[in-house]
Design brief:
single chain, mainly beta, Neuraminidase, five-stranded antiparallel sheet, four-stranded antiparallel sheet, 29 strands, 47% strand
Length: 341
C-alpha cells in the first residue's frame, strides 16, 4: 500500500488537525500531563557530536507545533487550547510565548516568519472558510485570497515579501501559488493532480510537494527555481516525502514516511545529495516544518503520552547517514544558530 500525505483546508475547530493540514502528519491523540517547561536533549550516534533538541509546549495547550523560525531565533506555530480551539503563537528567543490570532477568526495558524519579523499564516472565519494572511507588527493584518478560490492558505514568505501557499477550488482540488507585489501566479508541478507550495527563499526558490493519485494528496517533494525549473526531491528509501521549508542556502526540511509507515523529520541539501533524519528523541512521529539559515530546524512530534509538542533541532556535524544511490553523505549544518529558551 502506498502512503500519502493528504492536503485539506483548515475548516474545523478542535481536533481536526490544527495546522497546515497537508503539512503536519501529527495527530492529537489524547490530552495528557504537560511537559514541565522547556526540555533539552542531546542525541549522539557513535562518537560524532550531537544535534541538540529542545521541546516546546504552549502553557495550558493540549497540542503545540512549531512551523517557522527566522535568523534571530523567533519561532512561530500553532497550539490548541483546552477547548480544542487553534491559536497562533510566537516564541521569542528569551523563551517567552506570545499568542497571535487573526481578528475575529475561529482558528489561526502561523506558518512562517522572515528576518523582518513579517509573518504569514492562515485563519478560519465564522463561515468555516480558510484564508491566508500576512501580519506586520504591531497590529497590521492583511488577508490573502487567491482569486476565485474556495479556500486559501499562506505558508511561506521571504525578505522581499514574496508569499507562497495553496488554494483549493470548490471541488477540493489543490494548487500552489506565489504572490509578488499583488500579482498571483499559479504553481503546478508538471503532470501532477495536486500541488502545494510550502516556502520561498530570498532568491525566489520555492519548495513544495506534489502528488498524482488524488486532488489533495502529495507523496513527493520538489524545488522550483525562479526561472521555472522543477526538480523532484525524494528522501532516499522513503515511501513518501514532503518538502516543507527551504532556506537561503537551498537547504530543505520536511517529513517522510518509511517502509514501516513511520513518519520522520528530515533536513538536507538535495543539490549535494546530503540528508539527515532529525526525529525528536523518544518520539513516535516527527516532522520538520521550517529552518533558518544558521543550522536551526523546527517542527512537531508526538511524545510518549500521545500528545503533540513543538521542537527545535540545533545542528552539529550530521551523524545520520543514508545511501543516496551514489555514496553515503550526510547533512552537516552550521552551528551559529540558537533555539529559543
Amino acid at each position: 500500500m502506498t502512503c500519502k500525505f493528504r492536503s485539506e483546508p483548515i475548516l474545523m475547530r478542535g481536533r481536526n488537525l490544527p495546522t497546515r493540514a497537508f503539512f503536519s502528519v501529527l495527530v492529537i491523540l489524547t490530552a495528557g500531563a504537560l511537559l514541565p517547561g522547556v526540555l533539552t536533549y542531546g542525541q549522539e550516534t557513535g562518537s560524532s557530536p550531537a544535534y541538540t533538541f529542545t521541546s516546546y509546549d504552549y502553557p495550558g495547550a493540549i497540542f503545540t507545533e512549531a512551523m517557522g523560525i527566522n535568523t534571530v531565533g523567533v519561532v512561530v506555530g500553532a497550539y490548541a487550547d483546552a477547548s480544542g480551539v487553534t491559536h497562533g503563537f510566537a516564541l521569542l528567543p528569551t523563551g517567552k510565548f506570545e499568542r497571535l490570532d487573526y481578528p475575529g477568526a475561529i482558528s489561526t495558524v502561523l506558518a512562517r516568519i522572515n528576518d523582518s519579523n513579517q509573518v504569514v499564516g492562515s485563519y478560519v472565519d465564522s463561515n468555516n472558510v480558510s484564508h491566508g494572511f500576512m501580519f506586520v507588527s504591531p497590529n497590521k493584518f492583511t488577508p490573502i485570497d487567491y482569486p476565485g478560490a474556495a479556500q486559501t492558505q499562506a505558508y511561506g514568505i521571504n525578505k522581499a515579501q514574496e508569499i507562497v501557499g495553496t488554494w483549493f477550488d470548490s471541488g477540493g482540488n489543490t494548487s500552489g501559488f506565489s504572490l509578488i507585489s499583488g500579482n498571483f501566479k499559479d504553481l503546478v508541478y508538471p503532470k501532477s493532480v495536486s500541488t502545494v507550495a510550502s516556502d520561498v527563499n530570498s532568491s525566489g526558490e520555492v519548495s513544495g510537494s506534489w502528488g498524482n493519485t488524488g486532488p489533495n494528496e502529495q507523496a513527493h517533494g520538489f524545488l522550483l527555481t525562479g526561472k521555472g525549473t522543477y526538480t523532484d526531491v525524494e528522501y532516499p528509501g522513503a515511501v513518501a516525502t514532503l518538502v516543507l521549508g527551504v532556506n537561503d542556502l537551498n537547504e530543505v526540511a520536511g517529513s517522510y514516511i518509511d517502509a514501516a509507515n513511520v513518519t520522520h523529520g528530515w533536513a538536507g541539501s538535495p543539490a549535494k545529495k546530503q540528508y539527515v533524519t532529525l526525529d525528536f528523541p523518544g518520539s513516535s512521529s516527527s516532522s520538520l516544518g521550517g529552518l533558518g539559515n544558521n543550522g536551526t530546524f523546527v517542527g512537531g512530534y508526538i511524545g510518549p503520552d500521545g500528545r503533540g509538542y513543538g521542537y527545535c533541532a540545533l545542528g552539529g556535524p550530521a551523524v545520520t547517514r543514508v545511501p543516496d544511490g551514489i555514496g553515503e553523505k550526510a547533512m552537516a549544518p552550521p552551528t551559529k544558530g540558537r533555539c529559543p529558551g
